[in-house]
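Project standup — Tuesday

K.O.: blocked on the structure for the chain from last sprint. Re-posting the sequence here as requested.
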Amino acid sequence: MLNPDEDTEWNDILRQKGILPPKKVEKEPEVEPVDPVEKLSKLSLNHLQAKQERHEDRGSDTDDSDEFLAEYRQKRMDQLKAQAARPSFYSYGRITKADWVDEVNNAPKGVYVVIHIAESGDENCNIIDNIMKEFVLKYPHVKFLRAEAVTCIPNYPSSNIPTLFVYKDSVLEHKLIGLAAFGGKKSLTPKDLELKLSSFGVIYLDNSLDESDANKHKKGFVLRRNKSDSDSESD
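H.V.: unblocked you, prediction finished:
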């Protein structure tokens, strides 16, 4: 018995003749937007648990470590709450010169706007486009935009492509102009661009926290505690 859904040469012929209906195309599953607060909360908890294990391995005082980790975690949760209060975008918008003021200069206060100045058909720009499409879901509090150089910046040199402009509160804070500024084609990867944007302060990479960050926070905690103990003794 003929199965119209089978992928056979005979069925292809029948479809061409209109005898069989077109083959059903399976839809790709939609990518669920990442909840940045939930993700960062999990990362923060894992990060703190790892630090607690390191403190225990070093024989740190249990009470001090517990208080330090509680204070450190509270600090991170405050940061997460502040992030959650910011506007979310979830789209990689295309703008023209006429849109620039509304989309860039008039962006919500405190929001970073990352603009990819591109040329249609450029291979490197295509790579960055795909990365930006990932980032809009991963970092929804950042406004990612694409602008064609020919329509936004007349006579913009092709040697400057690709370009990334980073704006905040109408001010151009950072820029990457030309492939060399990105570190060459080998550096056109999500990880490398994340590190670039993180160094600019645009995004926060929870797993980029190193031991020195925790140590600085703990030193401040210990100093505050010692001062409190000293004040109590003097009373």
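K.O.: great, moving the ticket to review. Confidence is low (pLDDT under 50) at residues 208-214. The longest helix spans residues 211-234.
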